[in-house]
Structures are given as C-alpha cells and as structure tokens.
C-alpha cells in the first residue's frame, strides 16, 4: 500500500469528510485522499495551524449535537453530501488509575468524544449516501478497544470497544443498501498525542521518555516490528479501504499495530 506517484486518481469526483483532520493520523488521511483525487473537507475544533492547508476546513465541536447538525447542513448545502466519511475524531482525555479514578463526568466525556460524536455524524450524513445507494464510512478505533490497559486508558478503551460494536452493527444494516462501513484500529502511532501520553506515563513513574516508551511497550506485550506506526502508514490502509479495490469489504475491523495484538 505504498504511495505511487503514477497511480490513477481513483477517488476523482468523490467528496470526503475527515473529522479531526488537521493533524496526526487525520491530516495524513486527508492528504492521502486528496492525492487520490478526492475533494476533502476537514473538520476540527480549531483551525489548522499551517497557512497552506489544502483542504476545505469547517470548524465544529462534534461532541456538541447542535454543531454536528450545523456541520451536516453546511456540507449538504455546499457540497451536496459526501461519498466518504472518516470518523477520526477521538482521543484519551481521562486520567489513569483504574475505576476509582474515573468520575461520571470522565466516562461521559470519553463516550461523547470517542463514540457518540461518530454516531451523531453518521446519522446526519447517511441519508444522502442512502439516496445515492453509495458511500463508505470508516470508524477510526484503536487496539485499546481489544487490549485495554486499566492503569492508563479504561474509559477510552471501553468507548472504542463500543465503537467497534456499533460499527459492525451499522455495517450489517447498510450492507444491502450500497454503503460500506469499516473500522480501522491503529496501535501505537507516532503522533503528538501519543508522544504526550508516553511522556505522562514516564513522568508519573519517574522515568525518561525512552524508559516510559519501553515500559508501555512491555505492558502491551511488545510490538514485533519493533517500532511505532507512522501516520502515513495508517492513511495508506484507510485509502485502500475507501477505494474501488475494496468494494467487497464491509463490517471488518482492520488492525494496524505491527503485530502487537496477540489475537486478532
């Protein structure tokens, strides 16, 4: 799935929305879809920092139902709907320490960000896809949904596990209606949020960053490939899944973790 500058732009004429697409994995996905010929809309809470941002940007906080509705209305009015939806927004925002460290507010905020935002946006944008009997939805999950670390990410892992189940149910509902739904679960990926997380783990244990990284890798059983993923590698998988080459794929959860998860 390496990028090939001579490949056909097989997403020409398609319109894609990437949530959380101004940095990290989301930005890499947006850039990859643009390279393949798609018109790309990006949404996030804050505008992109770079001045030469190549995508259509619409600011929205997708944890707020009213802003999801306004975003969908804006997209439907300006672009006539979308063909590809990448539900990438998410992240670990709650403290470690297990169940006793987590309040109702922690659980609610993690579910809003990592589950309900995707559900609301799907519900708002699916009608246009169903009218055309065509579309692809990718839910960006995490191997945490299958391999939770209670010391560090309990609420996040539970939210991602719920996203996995929702994604499979939606895929089954829409399979005969022309819309494909897939899940992508990255493992450790070299992004600023991941590096911040590793630094927090290291600091709490009195370790250096490199020691904290090794400690975290041991907790998940190690990464057989010996390194974290790069955002572009995740983006290449997402591009394949939304491309015509993956036309018979739906309902599956694709792990991209360097072999870290012991059982798929």
Automatic annotation (TrEMBL):
Pfam families: adh_short_C2. Keywords: Oxidoreductase. Residues 14-191 form the Ketoreductase domain. The keyword RNA-binding does not apply. Gene3D superfamilies: NAD(P)-binding Rossmann-like Domain (3.40.50.720). InterPro entries: KR_dom, NAD(P)-bd_dom_sf, Sc_DH/Rdtase_CS, SDR_fam. Belongs to the short-chain dehydrogenases/reductases (SDR) family. This is SDR family oxidoreductase.
């Amino acid at each position: 799935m390496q990028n090939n500058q001579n490949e056909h732009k097989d997403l020409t004429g398609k319109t894609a929305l990437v949530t959380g697409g101004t940095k990290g994995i989301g930005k890499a996905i947006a850039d990859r879809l643009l390279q393949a010929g798609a018109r790309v809309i990006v949404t996030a809470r804050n505008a992109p920092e770079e001045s030469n941002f190549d995508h259509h940007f619409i600011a929205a906080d997708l944890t707020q139902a009213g802003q999801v509705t306004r975003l969908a209305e804006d997209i439907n009015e300006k672009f006539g709907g979308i063909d590809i939806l990448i539900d990438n927004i998410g992240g670990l925002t709650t403290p470690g320490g297990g169940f006793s460290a987590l309040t109702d507010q922690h659980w609610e905020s993690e579910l809003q960000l990592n589950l309900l935002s995707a559900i609301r946006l799907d519900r708002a944008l699916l009608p246009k896809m169903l009218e055309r009997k065509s579309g692809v939805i990718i839910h960006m999950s995490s191997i945490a949904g299958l391999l939770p670390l209670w010391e560090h990410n309990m609420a996040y892992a539970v939210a991602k596990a719920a996203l996995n189940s929702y994604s499979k149910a939606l895929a089954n509902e829409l399979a005969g209606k022309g819309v494909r739904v897939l899940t992508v679960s990255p493992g450790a990926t070299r992004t600023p949020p991941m590096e911040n997380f590793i630094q927090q783990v290291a600091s709490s244990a009195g370790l250096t960053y490199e020691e904290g990284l090794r400690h975290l890798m041991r907790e998940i059983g190690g990464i057989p490939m010996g390194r974290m993923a790069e955002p572009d590698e995740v983006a290449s998988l997402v591009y394949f899944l939304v491309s015509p080459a993956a036309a018979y794929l739906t309902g599956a959860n694709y792990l991209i973790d360097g072999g870290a998860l012991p059982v798929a």
